[in-house]
Design goal:
- By secondary structure, the protein is an alpha/beta fold.
- Helices cover 40% and strands 25% of the residues.
- β1 and β2 form a beta hairpin.
Length: 256
């Protein structure tokens, strides 16, 4: 049986009178790329933010790497921050810091490594994401959208995480850049063995690299499993998401 790195059980989330989640259940296996899908306002990013302790659900339970994050101790919270990496939709780079300094932030905060060792780690991560060393002195305003995503990914990888949490990682990228990012993420997962949980609207990403997914709708998970399993489910949210014109075109492209 595969080891579960994330478990979400009966999560309820309310913002005032608005119900975002009403009994969400899902799990993520070690080493897989897991997609969180759904329409706008379905609570995908909210759920991701709950997993990384930026938001607290109204009810239910969330476990990450075996730690109960709803009632977590300071030591366990620090352990998780050492063992996960996060890439936000915009990249969330610090505009006043250059690339090297942006990547160094986590190393300075969570380790006691000397500067030379940190510099070596930063250079390795920059190479892993396919960037050249001459970007280290550049500032976010000097980077293209694709470069910002790669630098943010390098920062997310800098602590050698067991889990990567990604919020719309290909948003704003052209088709070539999005495909390049997908291929890089897939290859890095295979090489380094981390698990990936990503919020995405990108059907190409889902077809190409996602192992399993959860589709959110009506404040719950309406479908979970591999893409082939989900496509067999006759449910309104599944039908509108995957069986509309864009979904059918993607299926024909893949011969399915």
């Amino acid at each position: 049986m595969a080891k579960r790195v994330v478990e979400v059980k009966n999560v309820i989330t309310r913002f005032g009178s608005k119900i975002i989640h009403n009994g969400v259940n899902l799990y993520v296996n070690e080493g897989e790329i897991y997609g969180l899908l759904g329409g706008s306002g379905s609570g995908k990013s909210t759920l991701l933010n709950e997993m990384i302790m930026l938001l607290k659900p109204t009810g239910g339970a969330i476990s990450v790497l075996g730690k109960d994050i709803i009632n977590i101790s300071a030591n366990d919270a620090l352990y998780l921050k050492h063992n996960w990496g996060v890439l936000f939709q915009s990249g969330a780079l610090f505009s006043s810091l250059n690339v090297k300094e942006n990547i160094d932030v986590l190393l300075k905060e969570y380790t006691k490594l000397n500067q030379k060792t940190r510099d070596d780690i930063i250079k390795l991560k920059i190479e892993l994401v396919g960037l050249k060393m001459d970007v280290l002195g550049l500032y976010p305003s000097q980077l293209s959208g694709g470069m910002i995503k790669k630098v943010a990914l390098a920062r997310a990888l800098v602590m050698d995480p067991k889990i990567l949490f990604l919020d719309e990682p290909t948003s704003g990228l052209d088709p070539v850049g999005a495909q390049e990012f997908d291929d890089m993420l897939y290859n890095l997962r295979n090489m380094l063995g981390f698990s990936v949980i990503m919020v995405t609207h990108d059907l190409d990403t889902v077809w190409n690299i996602v192992d399993r997914l959860a589709l959110l709708g009506n404040a719950k998970v309406v479908a979970e499993g591999t893409l082939s399993e989900v496509l067999k489910i006759d449910e309104p949210t599944v039908n509108s998401f995957f069986k509309g014109k864009r979904g059918l075109l993607r299926r024909r492209t893949n011969g399915k």
